[in-house]
Amino acid sequence: MGDDASRQTTFGADGELSDRDPDADDTNDFGEPMDADETQGGYNRYAVSSLLQKAVRRSDEEVAAWAAWELARSGFAWNLWERLHLYVVEDLRAGQEVALLVDRYETLATDRWDPAEWRGRLCAIHAALACARASSSREAPNADEFFRNAAAERAEARETGGEPQVDFPVGEFEPGGEYDVAFDKHTGEGSRMGRDGEFFKTHGARVGPTGEDEQSARWQRLNMALHDVDFSGAQVAHAVDPVDADDKWAEPEFDDGEGE
């Protein structure tokens, strides 16, 4: 189910859009007939789903585990897994492996076992706990919102002939500017400027600020030695040197008579 956000606006609407597992119980813990969007414990599943994401966002392990268990046992496993997958892109600090764990737990719960039976519920709890223990961050949504607001501000400024209050981090992004190194042989502008493999090897392939490890640096030096360009010693050293942590886009020019 890929559109839970739109469904959330319909809670309480006679339950016509409910997607409870048809094999799930039709009575709650109290033996009462369940509404279409009611969980076994008598809660609204939209509220429990929202609580799940808030709990993992705030690192409340017990509440996250319960909310995942409640959705899984109530026939709303799809809602549970949609929420956890949303969490890993909306509320998780980038680069953490819990995103892969969530996918694996879902595969076990839904492809190998019944998501509502005990093994499926254990997978739900494991996934929720893994998410709650991960480092939460709203960096991706905050960045997305800022970039959208900046785009609107730039468009409005152009229409009125003024200057935007905020701009994209790259500004005008033109050759000769702060991010000049991006215009290499892989771009039309760079090609027209004659920036070939020599420019890319010397400037465009640098990493940082920790730099290459020794093995990777060794390979790069050998590659440059075997290249059809006669690179200078300064160019080779610069190519494997880490970028400046305080000025990541700074690039010197080389004019020592060796190479270009």
UniProtKB/TrEMBL annotation:
One GO term under biological process is: DNA replication
Q: Output compositional bias ranges, type Basic and acidic residues.
A: 192-201
Instruction: Using the UniProt annotation, give all residue ranges assigned to the region (Disordered).
Output: 1-41, 192-213
Question: Which InterPro entries does its entry note?
Answer: DNA_pol3_clamp-load_cplx_C
Tell me where on the tree of life, at the top rank, the source sits: Archaea
Coiled coil stretches, renumbered: none
Record's protein name: Uncharacterized protein
